[in-house]
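Troubleshooting: if your tokenizer reports a length mismatch, compare against these two reference records.
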Amino acid sequence: MQPAEFFHVIRPLLCGLALAIAGSIPLFAEREAPIRTGLWVMERLPEDAGALDAFANSIRANHQLTGVCLHVAWKEVEKEPGKPDFSAIDKTVTVLRGIGMKYQLCFKPGASTPPFVYAEGAQSFETRVTNPNRANVGEAIVIPVPWDPVYQQNFSWVIAQLGERYASDPLCVSVVLTCANLLSAEMHLPKRGEDLAKWKALGNYEERLLEVYKKYTDEWAKAFPRQEISLHLSKVLDLPPQFCEHVIDYGLSKYPARFTIQNCQLTGRREDTGMMTYDLVQKYRDRAHHGFQSLASLAHGGERMGSIELAVLNVVHAQGEYWELWHGDGLSLETSAAVARAWEEGRRLGYDAYKQKLIAEGRYQEQSGDRHRGKGRRGRRNAELTPEA
């Protein structure tokens, strides 16, 4: 074959190879920068003008904070059907805009679902508070069955209203993927023996819950098209970890740049490897944006939470992008500064070197037993500092 003929034949092949390589680049491109980074603080809405002023002063004074997670109970916003009152959120957001502080909206259904939803015919699920770290342990509560159409109609409507009001705010950078919840924004549902029997009587709850999560992944993403969509991981009923993986896979397939997974059980009592939610973060850390929320307060010696240093080790090991602190920790200049210093050191040294440093200093420990349960009155008192106890 003459050189000219060879070039004539090979040129289309070279062009095709170049296009194939170019087409594969996105598969290996670096993931987009995370929407949320740094230290965040969890906050309920201030109840009055005095509390709002105190909140503003605390946030303004703490330069370690990157953002505020606003925890909002649905029943406190919409007490009558179709008549939401956003004034408390508006006042808080106005303060944050004046400071230039980013915020997340965590809008909670579950036990915070308004009574009128049940009056309109939504199917309810009665249970009791079982978390010993909550002040209302043992109290009877009710939540909606997550796939009930009356509940969904009402919840979907108020999500759309929230989006119309806050999605265009550049400081609103994140929303929590709520839809099937109990007391917090995590994926928890009642799972005592008698609770599981009631769920089984309702049919194939695994299949139905997966459809609920897919539906509300899309609805939150539609209402807030620029924001991070944050899934607060936890074990769901008696379902295996693969259930959470199905939800994560769906979110990443639809919204890869902004779907985020969060571990809400970060501890500083030992390494968290072996905990289901922590292991899920590790499994997806190269594919999904991810962050952490403290299990408990670091105050009072961190008797339930553990040490700052071991908590930092867990965040660094999983390459966490952000860290949500409890109310008291995030508003404490001393505690948040200590967390920021330790986290910076941990990131600078890396997991292995930081672990060796903690071992050399006698700060590393292996602790057996239940590492998540506080003891006595102080554990319950601390639980009231945050909506996520």
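Reference record two:
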Amino acid sequence: MPFVNVKLFDDLFIWLRRATLAVAVIMAGWAASVLLGKPVTAWFAASAAIWIALLLITAVWQLRGSYTAIAALALAAAVVARLFGVLRLNPPASIAGLNPQDLDLLVATGPGIPGFELLGWLLGALVFVQFILRATSDAAAADSRDVSLNAAALLFIRVYVGLMFVPHFGSHILGGPFQFNIYTLYFASLGMPLPAMQVALAGSIELIAAVGLTLGLFTRPVALLGSVYLLMSMYLGGHFQIGYVWALPEGGYEFGVFWAAIVGVFAVLGGGRNSVDAQLWESEPARRLLPGVVRNVLAS
């Protein structure tokens, strides 16, 4: 009987990975058809094509069932779903005179390709169920169930906070000139010098934080960068002057400081055993080439 249960569990996991691949291929094909058949900018087409390719690569990779592959697929799926879920094919002719809140809504709420966001949620649900099955299987086979579950919980939180950055860098640097210009105007309305450069810098930091945290790559320095960035965004956005509660008009600093604290935890803990860092910096080549103090900082 235990043998049958294990076999059924393994069969379910295999079926789920194949279903995930099928949905990812459908998403990639749909996204590619939009690029070929709709009036998108070259900027958007280039960035979207890169992430569509990454979506297909990670969808094949996740057939192996590793945590890193599942996390990489979650990131690629989130970016593609975000790009096409809020894509605005017919932007307004003029955005002059709009206040910062109206500008933000233009790039944060769509309208997007109808139904694409729902497909993104379906793929995300399949990836999440994969993670649950993998974590359950590992806990059942581990010498210490609590240690295994704690490692899986740390991984889940790390990936989640990494994905938190996706909507931001997706709009700042991947969405094309319309979205970039809107955020440039928004940053200028806050009195920031060189607003276009600030938007590019913010988007770059968000992209680095998303990739580093989701995969657990250079986790400690990336987490420190992301945490400081979130605190600085609260400061430069004037949220500390507004007050603590996020629900206040214009938004207090509660939300940003909360996420800065969560991200900052990984600057101390590192990526955990289910991270690229754990595999990369503890490898034999790394032990030969890097000083011990460097490896201790980078390894988890």
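Descriptive notes for reference record two:
- Residues 269 and 300 are 7 Å apart (CA to CA).
- Residues 2-37 form the longest helix (36 residues).
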